[in-house]
Specification:
alpha+beta, Butyryl-CoA Dehydrogenase, subunit A, domain 2, Butyryl-CoA Dehydrogenase, subunit A, domain 3, four-stranded antiparallel beta sheet, three-stranded mixed beta sheet
């Protein structure tokens, strides 16, 4: 299939590819039942991704030699447009594909790319991100996990927390301190870690709904090859910032393209069924969510239009991420109003269970990928050009700071 430029397909080429995508999705995107939680939904997503890879539709913009399809952004846009019409089959892969994969592509050596990207793209392996620590949440640069070079291996010791899906992942991207003599942002490096290596202990965090989506990770003398340094030594903060930008774009733009308002559509159907669609207050709240979702979609479209294939997105990704958190906040009281007591107490498999979980999971939207306050700081500083907040520890060696357990 030939193209004149990276972004232009002839009408015939576009129609041919769209028909191929639609046929694949009609045959394979059946949806994930609400009762399929945790390992079940992950397995369904991985199987779907494997079928995508076999059909030549996985990793569309990545080179064939790295496990992708070697196609263009125009193909990617068409796929997203069609995928928006079907259930999201791969939401459990958002970190593996939306964050770890582009970081591997951006900063990995050719050897690392060839070794890890094909299996990642086809979901034969899953990846997690290890940034947050008990003493370094929003201020991630205060992390204390350390990596020390011992011959041909790095030895990692420390603790991470709130690591999504670590208990089912094969590999992870971690940031650790490699130079405590440097200021806190300057002495950090990024590594690849085998999540099943000796010394890696993963403890699931049990949620109120019975699930375990997040984890604590304890790393004790974990040894990885020297070649698993990802990117430049002591440049990990810049790389971590890039990864967070990928994360915010992944969270803020989703897997589909075009203007969508999925949550509003679902709530409108609930309001119609229970006779509340004529309530003027309900209609107003529904319209707010409808407008917010539509606006978020347009912000996402602009963000994707500004991204070049394989390039790090800019701070504009924080706009979509913050929009998503606003939608989550607005949806909670409306769900409770429309669904009623079923959203507080439900029978297993009942209609209230999924809505209750929607309410519970909505709280993480204001935390995961950086809190709302962090997003507003980024938008103010790097998008609007407002003065930065003062940093009194900017030039001090990390070893002299009183952070975490350093007292």
């Amino acid at each position: 299939m030939s193209t004149a430029t990276d972004d232009v397909l002839s009408p015939a080429e576009a129609d041919e590819f769209r028909a191929k995508v639609r046929a694949f999705l009609e045959a394979n995107a059946a949806g994930i039942d609400g009762s399929a939680r945790g390992s079940s939904s992950i397995q369904i997503g991985r199987e779907f991704q494997g079928k995508l890879a076999a059909a030549g539709l996985a990793g569309l913009v990545y080179p064939k030699e790295l496990g992708g399809a070697g196609l263009t952004r125009a193909h990617d846009r068409i796929y997203r447009e069609e995928y928006a019409k079907f259930p999201d089959m791969t939401y459990e892969l958002v970190i593996s594909h939306g964050m770890c994969l582009p970081v591997l592509n951006q900063f990995g050596t050719e050897e690392q790319k060839k070794q890890f990207m094909p299996d990642n793209i086809a979901a034969r392996t899953m990846w997690c991100q290890m940034f947050s620590e008990p003493g370094a949440g929003s201020d991630v640069a205060s992390l204390q996990t350390k990596a020390e070079l011992d011959g041909d291996e790095w030895v990692i010791n420390g603790q991470k927390v709130w690591t999504t899906l670590a208990h089912v992942c094969d590999y992870g991207v971690i940031i650790a301190r490699t130079n405590p003599e440097a200021p806190k942002h300057a002495g950090i490096s990024m590594f690849i870690v085998d999540m099943k290596a000796p010394g890696v202990e993963i403890r699931p965090i049990h949620q109120i709904d019975g699930g375990s989506h997040f984890n604590e990770i304890f790393l004790t003398d974990v040894r990885i090859p020297k070649s698993w340094l990802l990117g430049e030594l002591n440049n990990g903060w810049n790389q971590a910032t890039a990864m967070l930008m990928f994360e915010r774009v992944a969270i803020g733009t989703g897997s589909s393209s075009g203007v969508t308002h999925v949550l509003a559509d679902r709530l409108i159907e609930v309001a119609k069924r229970n006779g509340k669609i004529s309530d003027p207050v309900v209609r107003q709240e529904l319209m707010k969510i409808y407008c917010e979702e539509s606006t978020k979609s347009m912000v996402a479209m602009r963000t994707r239009a500004e991204m070049k294939a394989g390039k790090v997105p800019g701070p504009g990704g924080s706009l979509g991420k913050l929009h998503g958190a606003r939608i989550a906040w607005a949806s909670r009281p409306l769900i409770s109003r429309l669904v009623g007591p079923d959203s507080d107490a439900w029978e297993p498999g009942g209609r209230g269970e999924n809505w209750s979980r929607q309410i519970l999971n909505s709280f993480q939207s204001s935390i995961a990928g950086g809190t709302d306050e962090i997003q507003r700081n980024i938008i103010g500083d790097r998008v609007l050009g407002l003065p930065r907040e003062p940093m009194v520890d900017k030039d001090l060696p990390f070893k002299d700071l009183k952070v975490g357990t350093q007292r």
